[in-house]
Write a structure and sequence with these properties.
Distance between the termini: 43 Å
Strand content: under 5%
CATH class: Mainly Alpha
Mean pLDDT: 93
Radius of gyration: 19 Å
Number of helices: 6
CATH superfamily: Phosphate transport system protein phou homolog 2, domain 2
CATH architecture: Up-down Bundle
Structural class: mainly alpha
Order of helices and strands: HHHHHH
Number of strands: 0
Shape: elongated
CATH topology: Methane Monooxygenase Hydroxylase, Chain G, domain 1
Length: about 220
């Protein structure tokens, strides 16, 4: 097998591992949204348990990337392919971390007096989930246009977060019995906002992979 064939085989395995990791991350986000809507502590706990597997996958992918760089010494587009993979798995791992953070808050929130979940919270959570899906799809399809669309959605998430934050702070002033629960909910919203940021980062690395241009898309 030629050196080039070995390199292409290594890349194929690398991409497959990233797609598998992405699927687990996407499942964690989906479960986080469902657990929040239902305030389901059992589902939330399963999210936290999945985070360890995602962490291990990130480390394995990083090692594979570094091995490819060291042994194959790729250049130009080939180097871009490996470098973008090395970068975007970090953001995928951070997304999974925030899903785990959300799960911990849901467990706490479920033990408190039940509060009405504001509709904008659900809207923002679902939009963040869609951004993660879109970023992963753009990676699989090497689709820079789709990636740019994902990045543009981050503005909407930011707007929703600022609106929700103002509403929750106001509620704390009038519903003093539920301040603790509202604070937990505010943390959850912040984690979803950060998930959207990391989905944007993934999208930016996809654009770099396709076009060789790494820039802030938002």
């Amino acid at each position: 097998m030629s050196t080039r064939q070995v390199f292409l085989k290594d890349l194929t395995v690398l991409h497959a591992e990233i797609v598998r990791m992405g699927a687990l991350v996407e499942a964690s986000i989906g479960n986080a949204v469902d657990a929040l809507e239902r305030l389901d502590p059992d589902l939330a706990r399963r999210i936290a348990s999945a985070d360890d597997e995602i962490d291990e996958m990130e480390h394995a992918i990083e090692r594979r990337c570094l091995e490819i760089i060291a042994l194959q010494q790729p250049v130009a587009r080939d180097l871009r392919d490996v470098a973008s993979a090395l970068k975007l798995v970090t953001d995928l791992e951070r997304i999974a971390d925030h899903a785990s953070d959300i799960s911990e808050k849901i467990v706490v929130l479920s033990s408190m007096k039940r509060i009405v979940l504001p509709h904008p919270v659900v809207t923002m959570a679902n939009l963040a989930k869609q951004m993660v899906r879109g970023a992963l799809d753009s990676y699989v399809g090497r689709d820079a246009v789709r990636a740019a669309d994902v990045a543009r959605s981050d503005d909407r998430v930011d707007e929703l977060y600022e609106r929700i934050k103002a509403d929750l702070v106001h509620l704390m002033s009038v519903d003093t019995e539920n301040i603790a629960a509202l604070v937990e909910l505010l943390f959850i919203c912040k984690y979803f906002e950060r998930i959207a940021d990391h989905a944007t980062n993934v999208a930016e690395w996809v654009v770099f992979l396709v076009d060789g241009d790494h820039r802030n898309l938002n």
